[in-house]
Design brief:
Number of helices: 1
Largest sheet: 6 strands, mixed
Radius of gyration: 26 Å
Strand content: over 45%
Distance between the termini: 49 Å
């Protein structure tokens, strides 16, 4: 008689856990492919139609619907963000249509899910891992920008003209000590550090931007303040509201707000233009110095030397090779989307992880956002933040081993994920 499948009778293929391992579901290294025992199309790849649910936590069972999977789970692999998932069973719902029941693997991040059948790869579907962000308030002292060096966090408070340090433990509260404070520090809005060896001992010089004094200053380990750059005799060597600063491979990069430029400072204090024509605008260009900027704030540098900046509500990439491009954001607002379809609200802090993900302190949305290498923008923290302006990453690139430190109007906060 008729049923929801018409005259087609559904079949099931189930596997015990130890059978799935022996069949190569978790480790196919040096395991030969078993013979094909069902009608899998070897020419056309498998097709994914959907994942239910399309978000969840590790270990959750999901249903992956599609076609050309076949029923022999020995021939099938499911990968979440490149990691093999355990297949519990495959359900045949109609001729050429199946549902894979699989468990979300541990230690993965949000990303694409793909089905592989006899080395034929399906189209991807995006799966979001539901991490819970725990926000700990580490100090009540207002903070604007920060960085981590060893077991310490250094942060600036422009209103008190101070630079402070505290332990980097993710649990608070913490006591503070003053590294430097007073008119010589100035209105410090950007901070980074450079390592140096003193008597065979590793020490750090703290480098800050004084946005009102138009200098970049250096603070040694004893708290002595000196001018690193900004006193030059040429326009290129001078700043107009230097805001944020990043360090990479012997050079500092500074967002120079009212010059509409990104400046580069060599380790000896020589200043040069890195990007920007000096005119106000938001024009992308294959020539770094022909591009224009309008509202430069945050800055960070990846391992390959690519510089990223926030420019009002956009995130832009400055490549030494390909010039300036806008990679995310457009108009003011709040929207998780791909690339320039996403929306931010004047983000003032950013950091890039070793895996290429960019983390954004979306200041006036009171959120931490993230840009994936494929351009997808997602929200990773949406609570207990008050105008976050600074961000630094610590630990692994996966959420379960990552800590994020944030500077906001309430103080320094530590964030971990569970």
């Amino acid at each position: 008689m008729g049923n929801s499948f018409g005259d087609y009778q559904p079949k099931y293929f189930t596997m015990k856990k130890k059978e799935s391992i022996s069949a190569g579901i978790k480790n196919t290294k040096n395991v030969s492919e078993p013979p094909i025992t069902d009608n899998v199309n070897l020419i056309n790849p498998p097709i994914l139609w959907g994942i239910v649910p399309n978000h969840g936590k590790h270990g959750q069972i999901v249903k992956i619907t599609g076609g050309r999977f076949g029923l022999n789970a020995s021939n099938v692999k499911v990968k979440f963000s490149g990691v093999n998932a355990e297949i519990l069973w495959i359900e045949d719902i109609a001729e050429g249509q199946q549902i894979i029941h699989a468990a979300v693997p541990e230690y993965i991040d949000s990303g694409d899910v793909k089905v592989i059948v006899n080395q034929q790869i399906s189209n991807p579907f995006y799966f979001t891992v539901d991490w819970i962000a725990i926000v700990e308030k580490l100090t009540s002292h207002p903070a604007d920008s920060l960085f981590k060096a060893g077991e310490k966090i250094f942060f600036t408070d422009p209103n008190s003209q101070g630079v402070f340090e505290m332990p980097s433990r993710i649990y608070g509260p913490h006591s503070l000590s003053v590294l430097a404070q007073g008119p010589a520090v100035g209105y410090a809005t950007g901070i980074t550090r450079v390592p140096r060896i003193v008597n065979n001992h590793l020490e750090y010089d703290v480098i800050i931007t004084d946005v009102h004094g138009n200098h970049v200053n250096k603070i040694d380990s004893l708290g002595n303040v000196s001018v690193l750059a900004g006193n030059g005799s040429t326009p290129t060597a001078r700043f107009k509201r230097p805001y944020r600063i990043a360090y990479h491979m012997g050079n500092y990069y500074v967002t120079d707000i009212d010059n509409f430029e990104v400046k580069k400072i060599s380790i000896d204090g020589t200043v040069s233009k890195f990007a920007g024509s000096g005119s106000k605008g938001q024009f992308d260009s294959p020539s770094r110095k022909a591009a224009t900027f309008a509202g430069l704030h945050a800055i960070c540098v990846d391992a390959d030397g690519n510089v990223y900046v926030t420019d009002w509500h956009k995130v832009r990439k400055i490549s030494p090779v390909t010039g300036v491009t806008t990679i995310a954001g457009n108009d003011q607002g709040y929207l998780d989307e791909f690339g320039t379809n996403a929306k931010f609200n004047d983000p003032k802090g950013m950091a890039v992880a070793a895996d290429g993900y960019i983390y954004i302190a979306d200041t006036y949305n009171n959120k931490i956002r993230r840009i994936a290498p494929n351009g997808k923008v997602t929200t990773v923290v949406n609570h207990d933040l008050n105008k976050p302006t600074g961000i630094v990453l610590s630990g692994s690139t996966t959420f379960n081993h990552m800590a994020i430190y944030v500077a906001d109007a309430d103080g320094v906060k530590g964030i971990y994920f569970t």
